[in-house]
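Researcher: Structure prediction, please.
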Amino acid sequence: MRTPALLVAALLVGCASRRPEPIPSAVPSPFARLPGSPGSARAGFVEPVREGAAHCVVGLSPGVTAKPGELLVSRDRALRPTALLEVEQAQGRVAHARIRRGRPGPKDEAVKPSPELLQLAEALPGT
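Model: Predicted structure follows.
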């Protein structure tokens, strides 16, 4: 009776001490950056802007803060910059920004830009 119990215990201890090997996945992680995407962190999304407006509203993502004077870049689905935005006021999950260059599209993504993306946004036509 003692032998089967010892064999089961040895088997359990042997299984518990062995680390499983990672399973290679053919499907990329949803958290991985897309190839060619800039290293810019998402701040939120631009709310629709009326034609000729000098300001816009950015709905900030959870956990993101924005400070007055901070620059954001809006970009379209193809990750091309559409506007350079300067935060004037932020309260909770809403930031009010002045459109410095370009014109943001409805529901464009707003990001805290990498130096490369900021340079591209500064080349946009002025408002």
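Model: The two ends are 86 Å apart (CA to CA).
Researcher: Thanks, that helps.
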